[in-house]
Amino acid sequence: MAIKKNELYSSLWESCDKLRGGMDASQYKDYILTLLFVKYVTDKFKGQKYADINVPAGGSFDDLVALKNNKDIGEKMDKAIAKLAEANNLTGVIDNAKFFDNSKFGNGKDMVDTLTGLVSIFERPEFNFSNNKAGGDDILGDAYEYLMRNFATESGKSKGQFYTPAEVSRILAKVIGLGKVKNRNTTIYDPACGSGSLLIRAADEAPFDIAIYGQEKETTTAGLAKMNLVLHNKASGEIKSGNTFSNPQYLDNGALKRFDFVVANPPFSLKNWTDGLQEFGRFDGYDDRPPEKNGDYAWLLHILKSLKPTGKAAVILPHGVLFRGNAEESLRRNIIDRGYIKGIIGLPANLFYGTGIPACIIVMDKEDAAERQGMGGGIFMIDASHDFVKDGPKNRLRERDIHKIVQTFVNRIEDDPKYARFVPMEEIKVKNGYNLNIPRYIDSGDAEDEQSIDAHLNGGIPAGDVDSLKRYWDIFPGLKNKLFKKFRAGYYQLKVEKDEIRSAIFNDEEFKAYAEQIDNAFDAWLKKSSKKLMNIDGTVDVKKFIIELSESLINEFRHIELVDFYDVYQVLLAYWQETMSDDVFVLKYDGYMAGAEIVKIFKKESKNGSASSPTGKNDGKKKAEPKEIGWEGKLLPKIVIERVYFAKEQAEIERAEQVVAESESRLEEFVEENSGEGSVLAEYTKEESEDLDAKKIATKLKELKKQKTSGKSEEYEVLAKYTELADTAKKQAGIVKELNKALDESVKNKYAELTEKEIKDLLVKQKWSFDIFEGIKSLYDTTSHKIATRVTELADRYENTLPDLEATVADYETKVKNHLKEMGFTF
Known about the structure:
The protein is α/β, with parallel strands linked by helices. It contains 29 helices and 18 strands. A nine-stranded mixed beta sheet has the order 3-2-1-6-7-9-8-10-13. It has a three-stranded antiparallel beta sheet with strand order 14-16-15. The longest helix is centred in the last third of the chain and has 42 residues, at 756-797.
């Protein structure tokens, strides 16, 4: 049975609640990730010969389970994990998180209960990694990455540097050409590897397994990196602990070992990099050394020294390395003159967890350095600093941003001078004195929206403003003449009323016809992709699958000018991450008939209404019992089944709901009319709220009915009418409830009747394509609104001339003076 990655992620993050509050995220991450590692290798390798990881007797997760409620659980957990470490030469790597720690887990029974509860979490069915069949698709490795990203977010600036965002890692991996390597002896190295995410993403880009080497100063973080490698099926990769400058771990005959590729995201502007420094020739041939209190160029020179003569590297550094003076300027000149820098990519600010400052990717290439040394060479620059989305406290690159950066860099696309350009060496060396600050070469700012004094004085909309919308007029040649007419030389006037601008645009035949191009492009993609989408099985390579789908989609939309194909790409990839990838995992392992299955939805709550003890402690409260609160289709949402098979019933419910809404509206109107101060219903309001007390009204109404009078009182009439309206609304609401209940049961029964052919059709054409197309259609809607908004903005701006405004003001001033004069005031 397949496990959905989003379900696994939420369960893992839930487990962190058992420790959250007791210690900082930078600490409790080590315990959660260690237990995840032990559970995974036990499920995958225990009892297997020649496995990547040897799981010895007494060193498995099963042995940790046996320690639950043991008074010495902390000490014995440490010993069990130490056995696992010893059996795999990982001592000091995977056994750094000590569970026998009173300062973290308390004393005596507190420690026993907390650690027992923590181990119990990983006994849940969703953590049975031997049965979920998900290992081949890096779902566990991705879950590990998910946890580290969340830990980095919670750890804050000072302790979040162990993790490089996966989005940035993927860019580095792609821009240095790892996807094109042919030599199976290729090596890759990260001298400041942190938890290994950057190194792993880079190695993943190669078409086959390559040799991985990483060094990390912090011993505990180096352990995380090694565990990360194992969870990503890269157990043979080497991770060593130590200071890269004072104790480099990778040497070859007394010199720094050289590699084919290097990727790095070192700590920015490291102040103590010279402590215990051993040079190993890093600075040979340079006139200066890096500043003692800033290690940015120390990392850069270490990376260059660690590259083979044909080596390539990508390193993340703060923007200061591009323009700072003194020793760094001297080093920058030397590196540029040697032709080592192939490209520079400016990134948005606040991407990284250790700092909020903007950074850049420096791409280096020794192999083709000679071509860049002379004035005929140059450096390719990209300013991607404006393309991102806010994500909590950080900024994040979207899939479209990543794809745009990579495609622009790899193919050296220069069609947008505000985004990227190839900068000749003459411009860099002669005109700008070796200063590489990106804004010197790329002006990515928006053009200033200038005001026309002439238009404000004499009326009309400047022709320059109207003509700035040329891309739209080229596509809709008749729309410009429909909206504007000549007013005077160089100025236009609106041809329609201002409040009719939007309808004039949206009803334009050319405009509506263009929308059909969106439909046709999507239909073409769906037709080409349907066979692939309807034949997913255990052989599908999920990573290649989404790449092929997305590239095919881009090709269909590449020539549709009013919709950015990078945005179309984003729609698909966002939907993939949120929904579709989980669906494909299920199809790969369980087949299409999983679409006929439903799953119950439970909510955990204790009988006395309080949450159960998070650590499994016997606190005297009743344990939570799962309460069923609903159900949903495993692959096909109820809404899809309802839309396709029960449209008639849905329409009936909508009509009934409309009746309810009308009845409730009449009731609310009646209550409002009769609830004012001194009115009949005022005295029937509940003390604790503004709601009417229906029980009190019913009792009073009975009393009034019994009274023998010649006519009914006003109070009786009001209470009776209220009761009648309330009863009608309640009765109609009950009808809606019964209709919904009947529909729900019919939909549930329909799942069991579905054939595989129906499921494929529903999944591809009614779920996936429906949702994806809605996202793409919204892009065109947004574009169309931009035209209308800009035209309306110009109409508003120049609607009244300055003389007209002055005349209006003078008129108002005269009226005010006359009013004051009539009131006896003079001034």
